[in-house]
Structure formats: C-alpha cells, structure tokens
Design goal:
Strand content: 25-35%
Order of helices and strands: HEEEEEEEEEEHHHEEEEEEEEHE
Largest sheet: 6 strands, mixed
Oligomer: single chain
Distance between the termini: 134 Å
Radius of gyration: 37 Å
Number of strands: 19
Length: 320
C-alpha cells in the first residue's frame, strides 16, 4: 500500500513539468501601422494658369511605400467635384511610392486637385490640401487650326453662332465672330482676341430672344445688324447683315416670308427670300458692318444659300 502511494507521488511529480510546458503563451502585440504622408505637385502651369485644352499633369508621392496601395485623386472646378480617380502607387526611390494623374482643361473657371490615401492594414491614412489654378486663353487667328479652335467653335455653336465643324479658323467662323461682336456691342471686326475667347468658353454673349413664344421665326434687331433664326425659343443660327441706310431705311414690324427667288438676279441679289413687297433677305457682294442697303437685309454671299434653306414660306420675321 505504501509502495503504491510512493509510485503515484513520483508519477505526479514527473507530470508537472509537462503540464507547465503545455500552458498557452500570451499573444504578441501586432506591429503598429506606419503613418502615411501624401504629397502632390501640379505641373504644366505658367504663373498659376493652364492654357485652355491643355493637359495638366499631377505627380504625387506616398511614403513610406507599401505594396498594393492606391490613392484617390479628385479634381474640382469652381469648388464642385469634377472627377475622381483611384490611382495605383508604384515603388519609387528609397522608401517612397509615386503616382500620377492628369486632367484636360476644357472650361473656364478655377480648377483644383487633392489626393487622399485611405488607411489600410499596411499603411495609415492621409490627405493633401487642394492645390488650384486658373485658365488662360489665347487669341485665335484666321487660318489657325487646332483643338482650341475646335472647342471655340463648339462653345460658339452652343449659343447659336454656328460655324460648322472642323478645327480651323475659316471665313465662316470669322463671320460668326463678327455676329457675336455685333450682338454684344463690341467693335465690329472678325478678330477673336483672348478676352473674347474667354467670354465664349465661359458661355457669355448669347443673343436675347425678343419673341420666345413666336415659334420658328427670324428676328432682325436693326441696332445690332444681325439676322437671328430661332426655334423653340432659342437661336439656332445668327448671321451678320447690313440693313437699309438712313436714306432708304428697312421698314420695321412683323411680316411673313412669301416668295423665293433662287440664284442671282439682275440687281445682284443672291437667293432672295421676300417678306414684304420688294424687301427681301438676300446675299450681296458688299456687306459692310453698318446699314448700307436700299432697305433689304443683305447677307454674305457665302452664307445666303444656307439661310435660303433655313427659312420657310409663311415664317414670321420681326424687324425692330
């Protein structure tokens, strides 16, 4: 009996170290996630400005570098979110990651950009302040071609000064610039200076329709010397014209188109569309920037065939 008790005591003593060795270890504390630092630089600026239709590059860094990270780059226009992009971060020099993005400046206004890294298991979060820039505009010249001219045409057309497609400053665009200048009380020329280009890209300088409820019709404000074609209350074509000189003024009032005369007649009138007695809208060889006709509404020869097709029998014309 005593021997059994001794053996049991020895067995228990031998088991104690084994049980102690099997006790679970306390978990180790995870390594702290490193703080992140995001920085951006805006390239391609000149005195804090970018040319219209220029691509503005953005270069950024994220440190320290950690694989698989992305940064959200957000562009703003006049304080409103324009576009956001999730950009992958690549390994740069040392412990720094790099990323790139860009935006094309297509409108007037104040642009800005900011970048943000959202915290992940590998790296903390950080964001930048917004960095901003403004837009500069060039003067445009006859014969010039490019994306700025194409964008200028598009912006003009949005206000009714339609000059056709393409990306070149042709004669038709020059006449639309003249119409724009007439509508806005500017010097009557075909010059598209930087200030005018800026106004057009900003959507400024549209014609104010005087008879918005008259359906499809034409308006001729004698003080502005333009012919405006209107549909659904908005201009869809605006042309520079020359109306009656002081000794033979153009009559004012509300009339309707009633007779067409295609081609060139003996008086030098080209594709005439009559609206009262002998008064007509017609092309002519000379269309000065001031009233010079015998009472008719003179248009440029190059514009009149298009106008002839755009007008209709029975359509109203308001001269005032």
């Amino acid at each position: 009996m005593k021997r059994s008790s001794s053996l049991l005591a020895v067995a228990c003593a031998l088991a104690l170290p084994t049980m102690a060795a099997a006790a679970p270890k306390k978990p180790e504390k995870p390594a702290p996630v490193p703080d992140a630092t995001v920085k951006i630089e805006v390239g391609g600026l000149h005195g804090g400005r970018a040319d219209i239709y220029e691509t503005v590059p953005i270069h950024g860094t994220l440190s320290p570098y950690a694989p698989g990270q992305k940064v959200e780059v957000t562009f703003y226009l006049d304080g409103h979110r324009l576009v956001s992009r999730r950009v992958a971060v690549s390994r740069g020099s040392g412990e720094t990651g790099t990323f790139d993005s860009s935006v094309i400046v297509k409108q007037d206004g104040k642009y800005a950009v900011a970048a943000k890294h959202r915290a992940t298991a590998a790296l903390g979060g950080d964001s930048t302040v917004r960095k901003s820039w403004k837009v500069s505009f060039p003067a445009l010249h006859p014969g010039e071609c490019g994306k700025v001219v194409k964008g200028f045409k598009k912006a003009m057309a949005a206000m009714g000064y339609v000059s056709g497609g393409g990306k070149c400053f042709n004669g038709r665009l020059g006449r639309e610039v003249l119409a724009y200048r007439k509508v806005n009380g500017m010097n009557r020329s075909q010059k598209a200076g930087a200030g005018l280009v800026k106004r057009v890209f900003g959507g400024k300088g549209a014609y104010h329709v005087h008879h918005p409820k008259a359906g499809e019709h034409a308006e001729v404000p004698l003080g502005k010397q333009v012919l405006v074609l209107i549909k659904k209350g908005k201009p869809f074509a605006i042309y520079p014209v020359s109306t009656g000189k002081p000794s033979t003024p153009t009559i004012t009032g509300h009339y309707t188109f009633y007779r067409q005369e295609p081609g060139l007649n003996s008086h030098g009138m080209y594709y005439s569309f009559y609206w009262h007695n002998g008064y007509a809208v017609h092309g002519y060889a000379e269309v000065p920037n001031y009233p010079a006709s015998h009472g008719c509404i003179r248009t440029f020869i190059a514009d009149q065939p298009r106008i002839y097709e755009q007008l209709h029998y029975g359509e109203s014309i308001f001269v005032f």
